[in-house]
Amino acid sequence: MTAQRRLESSLTDLNNPELLNRLSLDLEGESAQTILEWAATTLSPRVTFGTGFGLEGCVLIDLIARHELAVDIFTLDTGLFFQETYQLWSDLEKRYGVVIRGVRSALSVEEQNQELGDKLWEHQSAKCCEIRKVIPLQKELKNFSGWVSAIRRDQSPTRADAPILSYDERFDLVKVNPLVAWTKEDVWSYARKNDVPFNPLHLQGYPSIGCLPCTSEVRPGEDDRAGRWRGSNKTECGIHAAPKKQKALPVLNRQVSEGGS
Length: 261
Ligand code: SF4
Hints:
Layout: H1 3-7, H2 17-27, H3 32-43, E1 47-50, H4 55-66, E2 72-76, H5 83-96, E3 101-103, H6 109-116, H7 120-123, H8 125-141, E4 146-148, E5 165-168, E6 173-176, H9 184-193, H10 250-258
Parallel strand pairs: 1-2, 1-4, 2-3, 4-6
Antiparallel strand pairs: 5-6
Helix pairs in contact: 4-9
The structure holds iron/sulfur cluster (SF4).
Iron/sulfur cluster (SF4) binds next to helix 8.
């Protein structure tokens, strides 16, 4: 099968893990716009982009809105964002005329404090991330066949081998990483050229921004994600696990047979 034929594959075709791998390789070197267009065409209407409002996420929102792509957008609102992040959320919606849905934990921060103790993030950060991010994401992604993420290979060793397309076993869908081959400079260059709104904390020593209690300033020479969960072994919140060996994609067949949304 030619690369062009593979790019024209349907959602049902993607049940073949070998085809998904080949497609991922075909898309290497293609622009983020082309990858997003492929996702919007092939995975629509069940494709969503989950953003944490990092600079990469802002760039993807610009691309989705600029090219009017049929990609849903949401954020995992932990209730613990920086004020600057909440402001950016509002600014992006106004600037691009999009709705960025807030997906929240069943437990408010106050309820979590009452049930599991104050500042759970200080003594059980994995549990806190599970409650506030992973479980809400699991529930949310049940509605989708494709999940766009903003990760880049050069962000951290755990992301160094991320492909453009993969089957995410945990969430049972196709994961799409349009910016995976971009460098940090590529992202800043695009953002500046296109006047993309971004979090002002990026200019104040915070290259990677998560929840307020778990994000600190990064010192010169440190890894961009060194300020996340500083002082612990934790490097990821658990939503971007390394892709495992490809295997059959049962959810795709199920959702196709259900006939769409
Ligand atoms: Fe909790 Fe910190 Fe994880 Fe946010 S990043 S969900 S505050 S542990």
